[in-house]
Amino acid sequence: MKINLEILNSAFICDKIEIAELNTKTLVPKMMTRRRLTRAAKIAIYLSNEVNSNNERIIYGSSFGELKSSATILNNINNEETISPTVFQNSVYNTAVSYLSMLTSNKNEILTISSGDNTSLNVLKTAAIKALDGDEILVMVTETLNIEKIEELNNCIDYLECGVALKVKVTTKDANLSFSNIQNPNNYPKSILHMLHIAMNQDKNIIEINI
């Protein structure tokens, strides 16, 4: 089955260590709420604003999830320390979009997908099926890998913080963009590559998705 998606809007942001400016103070005015946000949540909120999201259904993906919170919990257990309730709350894969939905009062369907290197591809496949209902869908992937001693584990990813967002809808127009020539010379996380490829080719706006 083939479904063509029209890319209505796109945005991406990446940094080799930590993204410097996510406009969080403006987008999240309440300080106490801001302090609870994970890095992935801040990226999701930023990207949602960049693509002019209007409380669409959301398909979100991350291969590694909330790595910093997970690492903190494991260190707490290893050191026989108390686990912070906030850290525990922030350790689940849908943390970022949960904060986004609460901040925007979005009560629409939200799905979270994690499937390794194929995460962004499977986010797109899920979005394509959902888009058959005729509405616009917000698709988003983030990776936040900047944790303590990451250099001891990582030898293949140069960008430790990344996020990509697309607004899509189903279309009968012919595709003008494919996945056949995806390149990764800058060593971005492979889990974001399919959506990053779309966002970087903003002059082409129809992609064929094979389900």
Report on the architecture of this protein.
With 211 residues, the protein is of the alpha/beta class. The protein has one domain (2-210): 3-Layer(aba) Sandwich (Peroxisomal Thiolase, Chain A, domain 1). 33% of the residues lie in helices and 22% in strands. The chain contains 8 helices and 6 strands; from the N terminus they run E-H-H-H-E-H-H-H-E-H-E-E-H-E. It has helices at residues 24-27, 31-36, 39-50, 67-78, 85-89, 95-104, 119-131, 193-200, and strands at residues 2-15, 57-61, 110-113, 137-144, 161-171, 206-210. It has a 6-stranded mixed beta sheet, with helices on both faces. The protein is globular. The model has no long low-confidence stretch (mean pLDDT 96).
Task: Describe the SSE topology.
Blueprint: E1 2-15, H1 24-27, H2 31-36, H3 39-50, E2 57-61, H4 67-78, H5 85-89, H6 95-104, E3 110-113, H7 119-131, E4 137-144, E5 161-171, H8 193-200, E6 206-210
Parallel strand pairs: 2-3, 2-4
Antiparallel strand pairs: 1-5, 1-6, 4-5
Helix pairs in contact: 3-6
Keywords:
alpha/beta, Peroxisomal Thiolase, Chain A, domain 1, 6-stranded mixed sheet, globular
Structural class: alpha/beta
Helix content: 25-40%
Helix segment tally:
8
Supply the CATH architecture: 3-Layer(aba) Sandwich
Biggest β-sheet description: 6 strands, mixed
Question: What is the assigned CATH homologous superfamily?
Answer: Thiolase/Chalcone synthase
Q: Order of strands across the biggest sheet?
A: 3-2-4-5-1-6
Distance between the termini: 5 Å
- Total domain count: 1
User: What letter string, H or E per element, gives the SSE order?
Assistant: EHHHEHHHEHEEHE
CATH topology: Peroxisomal Thiolase, Chain A, domain 1
